[in-house]
Specification:
By secondary structure, the protein is an alpha+beta fold. The protein has five helices and eight strands; from the N terminus they run H-E-E-E-E-H-E-E-E-H-E-H-H. The strands form two sheets. It has a five-stranded mixed barrel. Strands 4-8 form a two-stranded antiparallel ribbon.
């Protein structure tokens, strides 16, 4: 009977340790850019699906979706990147901030007008600056803000991919 509680305790501790480690920054290279806010990073022997923290880029078939994806491809290049995990989402993806040198992909996408700050999920202090950058991109009609009334991806999805 003592065996079962020990196994449960061991599993609990293993989960606790893996959750703690999930937030540690790590390095990797991009295997695939899925879209403007998702990519697959190779770190060691692992392929890790990353969802960019705090932003939302246009969805597939949405205006500027391909431009956002191309922007990410060019930004990441073949360089080694730092991944700063925030949490795991309900799809099992690592939600993270991607950094190279002093550049931040999440921020740069917003600044270039290739993504929205996602107010529902962007809660860090940096999000305030990202929102200001989004407003400047909107005023200067950069990227997706060239469109007179671009629709956010979260609204696009609710409409069932029609426009």
């Amino acid at each position: 009977m003592i065996f079962r509680p020990m196994v449960i305790l061991a599993v609990f501790l293993l989960i606790l340790v893996s959750v703690a480690d999930a937030r540690e920054p790590f390095y990797g290279t991009v295997k695939k850019v899925i879209d403007g806010d998702s990519l697959i990073i190779i770190s060691g022997e692992q392929n890790i699906e990353i969802r960019l923290y705090g932003i939302d880029a246009p969805e597939y078939k949405q205006p500027f979706a391909e431009e956002a994806k191309k922007y990410v491809r060019k930004w990441v290049g073949r360089q080694r990147l730092m991944v700063k995990p925030e949490y795991m989402d309900s799809y099992g993806r690592t939600v993270a901030v991607i950094v190279k040198a002093d550049q931040v992909l999440n921020r740069d996408l917003v600044q270039a007008g290739m993504a929205w700050v996602y107010p529902r999920y962007c809660r860090k202090e940096a999000c305030k600056a990202w929102m200001e950058m989004e407003e400047v991109a909107r005023i200067e009609k950069r990227g997706l803000w060239f469109d007179l009334r671009p629709m956010s991806p979260w609204k696009w999805k609710r409409q069932g991919d029609v426009r």
